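Figure 2 data, in text form.
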Amino acid sequence: MQDDQRVFDVAIVGGGIGGTMLAAILARHGVRVLLLEGSGHPRFAIGESTVPETTFGLRVLARRYDVPEIEHLATNGALRRHVSSNCGVKRNFSFVYHREGEPTRAEECTQYPTWGPPLGPDSHYLRQDVDAYMFHVAVSYGATAHTHTVVDDVKFDEDGVTLVTREKGTFQASYVVDAGGMRALLPERLGLRQEPPYRTRSRTIFTHMVNVRPFDTVAPPREQHRMPSPFSQGTLHHLFQGGWFWVIPFDNHSAGTSELCSVGINLDLDRHPRPEGVSAEEEFWRHVRKFPSVARQFEGARAVRPYVSTDRTQFSSRSVVGDRWCLLPHASDFIDPLFSSGLAVTVMALNALSHRIIDAVREDDFDTARFGYLEQWIKRMFRFYDDLVSCSYVSFDDFELWNAWNRVWTITTLYGTNAQNQAAVAFEKTGDPASFTALETAPYRGLQGVDNPWVSQLFEQARDVVLAYGSGDLTSNQAVTRIFDLLRESGLCPAAWGTLDPQDRCPSGVFTLWPLMRLLLWGRFRSPQHVRGTYFTGGARLVGKEAVQALTTDVRRGSSLVQQTVRDMWVNWNRDWTRREIPSRK
């Protein structure tokens, strides 16, 4: 007789956020799940910033697979109530341009706000807390989990998979999912790693710090930069020729309990090759000192964990799926942290993978063809993000070029996010989880609107313009003019947005209730024919319903967040970050 604690339907190697969410979903649907984690919880991890597509994708996962705990990760209010007050709020993507030896110029910044309540805002995950939470959720649904259990080998035969661990002996499963990240087991054992076929060539230095000053205290005054949301309440990107810094604070709201800030720098390998004999810490501070405004933000800051320095950040695998195995996205490939795409791609993949595994277990049929969709769309998304990121590095040469190229990303983000919203609207009307199958049909597949021919055409044409600038075939001014022409000709830009005005550096405006309703109504009644009926078909009603539910929940809980929730539904700017003690300058 087989030992029930040794034989499973599915084994998941890696107990991070992707592996634990998958384990929770599968266990919730009666799949016998084994979850093996080489270290323990809590543990350090990066991949800390969500984006609107992540937020909406988490809601889809929670509702499609009836795992409400996943929705606790979707908005910052729910995250702080149910998961951890150590997480930060993300009300925007902010991009500030820098020149060596000069303070930043007030007019050289751009911003893209995230959605306000009830559908937002986004979050900065302190991953050690979030991953530990999801690990316990998976266990609560019945997953068998072992921490501090290293898998040394995986053996395949016609009946399934044998996993050989260092500490706990062997386990058997019908299928294995590798959620192990860059150092994943299966790519090594199966010889899947290949030279990354990507234009992006970057490397990274990162750590966690304390005493990082809010950039609003050192930036030009708000009346000069005119951004609608505080820099300190979003993911801040300091851009410069050949690279960028990230600043992801966890201490950026009045209810926060963390003092940490995630900090990193990404450098173009060709422009900034790794210097010999220089520590990661020294190289990081060398770059900080080049830019006066960045240096002011980091005055008095100190690292609380060792600096990590990578070689080339990009890696790739020849395949995502095979006979009785699958790689989650970041066990397969990685591009760059720019645009915080990692969690979004993972959530997209989990939505497509989970029901396939559930059906495969029920039918005892793990034919590789069943999982072919994952191969196609995970790889397609990595190609898209390679184009997006590599062209961004090129555009960092000149602020006006970045200002133009950045607008293309805001449009792809709009349509990608609305695709998720379309499925949510359909589910609200019917209550049928089958509504979410639309996300695997044209034009809603993937992320960032890549499956929509109009969006894809705009993106690819603008990409080619940036590449033409990079190869010297166009001047910066010519490239900027052409990108704005493409945006104008696409018909995809909402009438209320300032996308076609180069002087409007937050072209989307904000996503508080009234601007959001105006956007949804434009999409439903005034947008071009190739938009109307495909997007924005019922979002206004959903937003209204969710707003009432959010307020009702806070009132019933007697929550101190009620006043803040109401404010954030209508106003994007706040001074919550000033209620935290600001590190003194020496």
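Caption note: The chain has a mean pLDDT of 93.
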